Amino acid sequence: MTETTSAPLLSADGVGKLFGHVRALRDVSFDLQAGEVLAVLGDNGAGKSTLIKILSGVYDLSEGRLRVRGEDVTFGKPADAAAKGIATVYQDLALVDTRDVAANLFLGREFRRGPFVDRRRMYREAEQVLAGLTIQLPSVRVPIYLLSGGQRQAVAIARVLVGGADIVIMDEPTAALGVQESERVLRLVRDLRDAGKAVILISHNLQQVWQTADRIMVMHLGRVAGIRRRADSTVEEIVKLIVYGDPDETPGHGGDQQVPM
Amino acid sequence: MTALDSLGVLNPVSWFRPTRPSGSDRDGRRRVSDRLLDLGIYLSLVALVLYFWQASPYFMTQRNLLNVGAAVAVTGVLAAGMTIALIAGQLDLTVGANIAVTSVVVALAVQDLGWSTPPAVLLGLAVGVAIGLVNTALVVGVGINSIIATLAMGIVIRGIALISTDGQTKPLTNLALPDFLQTRPLGVPTSVWILAAVFVVSWVVMSFTRMGWHIYGVGGNASAALRAGVRTKRVYAGVFITTGVLAALGGILTTGTSSSGGPNYANGAEFDVLTAVLLGGIGLAGGSGRVQRTLAGVLVIGVLNNGLTLMSVNSYYQQLARGAVFVLAVVLGVIGERRRAR
Fold first, then answer.
1. Could you give the angle at the alpha carbon of B130 between the alpha carbons of B273 and A110, nearest 5°?
2. Are B208 and A58 an interchain contact pair (Cβ–Cβ within 8 Å)?
3. Looking at the structure, do residues A175 and A245 belong to the same domain, yes or no?
């Protein structure tokens, strides 16, 4: 890792989000390098979803700033984040069931030839992208509703590759999958990293995080409880961060439940 | 979607399955019947044509077939628009009232204001655009379900049409528009040319343009399309403007063929149009359907009406036949959707 020398691909600096008087996020700061997987862990209500939505342009932030490749950015809509190379693979996968694989891969960024969509090019490139993944799909002309859960996940991930995004946010990619399918998807996550993408992996599953992440950011009650390199940390430390928001907390103490308002 | 996901979870083997379906008898049979169901509307059209061909010596004549085309021109033009709306996951129930107000506006412009026909026609189309914009504002801006918004707007629009002629039908004495529609370039009535042009353009837009692909995407999964960067509000606006303009075109055709503008024209036309569209198997759920199938649905109704009339079937029985066809279409549609969702 070269986190001290190369500029981060994405950095958040004091990011906060208010919904009316409710503070969902406070002072979130982190850097993300190319070719690393940063796992974001945290209990329900820790602010993971709010953070994803800010990074993917669904919400605008209330405080702080975001930089992509050192450049300040503001996102008013998802397309703004996409334009900066940030792609999000949502938990619900955000696929159009009635359309075929290629139409889904290129939704919102269809190739054109004159006034018309370039179908031939889209089908060809869709085949190339999917051939590069270790996933079997019957054809790029199959509608999504005929695919299995894992195959759908593959299509959603392939969308990222097609879009040329270099920052990939994955929201609970294995939540709806069985054991074998989860392994496949985690391998895809590592493939993305090895291809030089920066991956933010939101997960509940500590075991999967341990297999996949380079660094782990734990969120607790809307703030960052800690960021650890996986190699330098222990499961016990991470669990304490998740549960108490503090690595030195001992069970039963019950302190440090500052409600961030 | 989640139900389908869980099907995948229950069957992790599917992950590794190279192709799907793997060719089991059950899958094979299902696919053949799916395909027959897909072709159903075309097969029905062929069957009706063959039946009336042998039943009546007048049916399979060039002149009669062109009559069928002319008779379904207005319904067909509206049905093309309704198909696009349904693919986008919306409905536009203002189209009947739109016809009435357009015909009244065109007739008043020509008769009372002394406009020549081309600007009056353009004004009629502009009325269609305006109705499309109001529908967009209600559905996208305010966020009202399109069935409710356009049902209400249809009542308002017909009210405006009734007020502006005091409920009377306005006859045209300037016959430029009727005369134009009576021309038959290459022996084919102008209205049939217009119908054909509307369907060709709709097919090209829906199948080969980014707008068309976005309409399918928005109708299939609006939030996915939005998150993929599709400007969904713009797509909806395009859809409602399209249905508005096509209905206005229908209104202009109606004005020309009847040589008058009438506030009561096309009362309930939405339902004839929906019959044709549903007959074509366009799902109400959005995201699927093809305009060429709707054209087949329109022609099934046209051929049925024409054939039954040629065979001197009592018009009450014709009504029964139309209703039966509608029920059949809906049943087939439900079966089709169930199979897709399996």
1. 75
2. no
3. yes
Within 8 A by CB and 6+ apart from A69, the residues are: A7, A9
**Structure confidence at residue A95 (pLDDT):** 93
Identify whether residues A114 and A242 lie together within a single domain: no
Query: pLDDT tens, B192-250?
Result: 999 999 999 999 999 999 999 999 999 999 999 988 889 999 999 999 999 999 999 99
- Band of the pLDDT at B4, cuts 50, 70, 90? very low
- Residues of chain A in contact with residue B12, where contact means CB-CB under 8 angstroms, are 150, 178-181
- Name which of A3-7, A32-36, B17-21, B101-105 the model is least confident about: B17-21
Do residue A58 and residue A174 come from a single domain?
yes
**Predicted local distance difference test score (pLDDT) of residue A175:** 81
Nearest to B5 among A98, A138, A176 (CB): A176
**Domain presence at residue A219:** yes
**For residue A152, which residues of chain B lie inside 8 Å, CB to CB?**
5, 8
Q: With beta carbons under 8 A apart, name residues in chain A contacting B212.
A: 117
Same domain? A16 vs A76: yes
**Neighboring chain A residues of B221 at a CB cutoff of 8 Å:** 94-97
Both tokens of residue A140? 């790029």
**What are the boundaries of each domain within chain B?**
72-340
Q: Which of B4, B9, B220 sits opposite A178 (nearest CB)?
A: B9
- Please report whether residue A24 resides in a domain: yes
- Residue B339: which H helix or E strand, with range? helix B315-340
pLDDT at A185: 85
**Do B15 and A148 form a contact (C-beta atoms < 8 A)?**
yes
State whether ipTM is beyond 0.90.
no
Contact B217, B230 (CB under 8 A): yes
Maximum alpha-carbon separation in chain B: 74
Give the residue numbers in B contacting A (CB under 8 Å), as ranges: 1-2, 4-9, 11-12, 14-20, 204, 208-210, 212-214, 216-217, 219-221, 223-231, 286-288, 340-341
Q: Chain A closest CA to B72's CA: distance in Å? A: 30
- State the count of interchain CB pairs (< 8 A) between A and B: 128
Asked whether residue A151 is assigned to any structural domain, the reply reads: yes
Token pair 């009435």 in the structure block, residue: B100
Chain A residues whose CB is inside 8 A of the B2 CB are 176
CATH number of the domain within which A69 lies: 3.40.50.300
pLDDT score, position B337: 67
Determine the structural domain holding residue A174 and report its residue range: 8-85+170-180+190-195+204-261
Give the nearest partner residue to B209 out of A115, A145, A176, using CB atoms. A115
Mean pLDDT of chain A: 86
Residue A36 placed within a domain: yes
> Which of A80, A122, A116 is closest to A101 using CA atoms?
A122
pLDDT at A66: 93
B291: tokens are 């305009």
Mutation choice for B interface testing from A80, A96, A116 by most B CBs within 10 A: A96
Tokens of A190: 């590592």
How buried is B196 (Cβ within 10 angstroms: 0-12 exposed, 13-18 middle, 19+ buried)?
middle
Q: How many domains does chain A have?
A: 2
In this structure, are A61 and A175 located in the same domain? yes
